[in-house]
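Researcher: We plan to redesign the surface later, but first we want a full-length starting point. Tokens attached.
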């Protein structure tokens, strides 16, 4: 199973982390897409470390990050700078979607 997580605000980091780790523990793939104020989590080590987890991919909307002044230059290479196309691809590929 593939779980998609849309992160559109900065208030649920602990829930995102717990849900991601629980899903991967059950051998599910997790795709995380950060947009809007959710891009505010990008500088967080806890959030960035999710991209290092096996079977987790993390991308974000460049437009949103720019709008909210999020510095993305030093993000690890495995965090994908994307657009709403990444969101649409996740929606198409995921078996379940959670919005936080």
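Model: Full-length starting sequence:
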């Amino acid at each position: 199973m593939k779980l998609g997580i849309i992160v559109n605000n900065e208030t649920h980091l602990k829930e995102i982390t717990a849900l991601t780790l629980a899903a991967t523990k059950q051998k599910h793939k997790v795709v995380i897409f950060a947009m809007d104020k959710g891009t505010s989590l990008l500088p967080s080590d806890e959030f960035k470390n999710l991209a290092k987890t096996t079977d987790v991919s993390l991308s974000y909307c460049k437009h949103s990050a720019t709008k909210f002044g999020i510095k993305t230059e030093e993000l690890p290479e495995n965090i994908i700078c994307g657009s709403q196309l990444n969101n649409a691809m996740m929606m198409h590929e995921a078996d379940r979607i959670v919005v936080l």
